[in-house]
């Protein structure tokens, strides 16, 4: 194996945080099957060339590769990418990971991907519109782009910040900044301005009693958006 065992061990010590479904990343593990199946129902992933922007430790990237996609995951978090690489080695699921920004990747590989995903990232960056433009550049004509983010309204503040971070402690305090949440109309404008067509919205809900997530038509807190690049 062409890897330094000491380096692998160093990042193995971090890996359990991303890939432990009971850790602070538990919500990502629990919503991942929902978002994966939603994407795969719209675009069967087998044989598709896919790029996952803001891939973190690779939870979505690996699951798309398991569906038969040829996946590239990009992120600016070096430690997260090391964890993703390590897990890919351990699981035997091949994913290409790259430490690069979406904008730089778009300059390098414009129009190369059948599917672009960008999940739970837009609300963490200073200029989400630039990420949407990069996604639009990366996807092939006729290809598909998927985003997920958090709506901005009193309900989303109550559920996503007060509820998830303070009351239920599902996420570390300070995970989200309410001012960076994005309304569906704002995201739609970013998408259209980037030359993409909005193809559909889906809401995601959490029941604190059953502790289960589900997809629905309520986009008031968490929501997903499908977009396409015209031929």
UniProtKB/TrEMBL annotation:
<feature type="binding site">
    <location>
        <position position="54"/>
    </location>
    <ligand>
        <name>S-adenosyl-L-methionine</name>
    </ligand>
</feature>
<dbReference type="GO" id="GO:0010420">
    <property type="term" value="F:polyprenyldihydroxybenzoate methyltransferase activity"/>
</dbReference>
<keyword id="KW-0949">S-adenosyl-L-methionine</keyword>
<feature type="binding site">
    <location>
        <position position="75"/>
    </location>
    <ligand>
        <name>S-adenosyl-L-methionine</name>
    </ligand>
</feature>
<keyword id="KW-0831">Ubiquinone biosynthesis</keyword>
<dbReference type="GO" id="GO:0032259">
    <property type="term" value="P:methylation"/>
</dbReference>
<comment type="similarity">
    <text>Belongs to the methyltransferase superfamily. UbiG/COQ3 family.</text>
</comment>
<dbReference type="GO" id="GO:0102208">
    <property type="term" value="F:2-polyprenyl-6-hydroxyphenol methylase activity"/>
</dbReference>
<comment type="pathway">
    <text>Cofactor biosynthesis; ubiquinone biosynthesis.</text>
</comment>
<keyword id="KW-0489">Methyltransferase</keyword>
<dbReference type="Pfam" id="PF13489">
    <property type="entry name" value="Methyltransf_23"/>
</dbReference>
<dbReference type="InterPro" id="IPR029063">
    <property type="entry name" value="SAM-dependent_MTases_sf"/>
</dbReference>
<dbReference type="GO" id="GO:0061542">
    <property type="term" value="F:3-demethylubiquinol 3-O-methyltransferase activity"/>
</dbReference>
<feature type="binding site">
    <location>
        <position position="35"/>
    </location>
    <ligand>
        <name>S-adenosyl-L-methionine</name>
    </ligand>
</feature>
<feature type="binding site">
    <location>
        <position position="119"/>
    </location>
    <ligand>
        <name>S-adenosyl-L-methionine</name>
    </ligand>
</feature>
<protein>
    <recommendedName>
        <fullName>Ubiquinone biosynthesis O-methyltransferase</fullName>
        <ecNumber>2.1.1.222</ecNumber>
        <ecNumber>2.1.1.64</ecNumber>
    </recommendedName>
</protein>
<dbReference type="InterPro" id="IPR010233">
    <property type="entry name" value="UbiG_MeTrfase"/>
</dbReference>
<comment type="function">
    <text>O-methyltransferase that catalyzes the 2 O-methylation steps in the ubiquinone biosynthetic pathway.</text>
</comment>
<keyword id="KW-0808">Transferase</keyword>
């Amino acid at each position: 194996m062409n890897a330094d065992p000491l380096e692998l061990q160093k990042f193995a010590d971090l890996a359990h945080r991303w890939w432990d479904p009971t850790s602070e990343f538990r919500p990502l593990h629990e919503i991942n099957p929902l978002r994966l199946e939603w994407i795969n129902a719209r675009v069967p992933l087998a044989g598709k060339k896919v790029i996952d922007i803001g891939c973190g430790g690779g939870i979505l990237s690996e699951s798309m590769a398991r569906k038969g996609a040829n996946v590239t995951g990009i992120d600016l978090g070096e430690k997260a990418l090391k964890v993703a690489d390590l897990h890919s080695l351990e699981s035997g699921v091949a994913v290409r990971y790259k430490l690069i920004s979406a904008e730089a990747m778009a300059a390098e590989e414009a129009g190369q991907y059948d599917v672009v995903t960008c999940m739970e990232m837009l609300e963490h960056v200073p200029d989400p519109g630039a990420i949407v433009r990069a996604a639009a550049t990366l996807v092939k004509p006729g290809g598909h782009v998927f985003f997920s983010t958090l709506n901005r309204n009193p309900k989303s503040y109550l559920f996503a910040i007060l509820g998830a971070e303070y009351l239920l402690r599902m996420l570390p305090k300070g995970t989200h900044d309410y001012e960076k949440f994005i309304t569906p109309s704002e995201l739609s404008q970013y998408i259209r301005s980037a030359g993409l067509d909005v193809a559909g919205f889906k809401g995601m809900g959490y029941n604190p009693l059953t502790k289960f997530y589900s997809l629905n038509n309520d986009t008031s807190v968490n929501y997903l958006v499908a977009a396409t690049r015209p031929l």
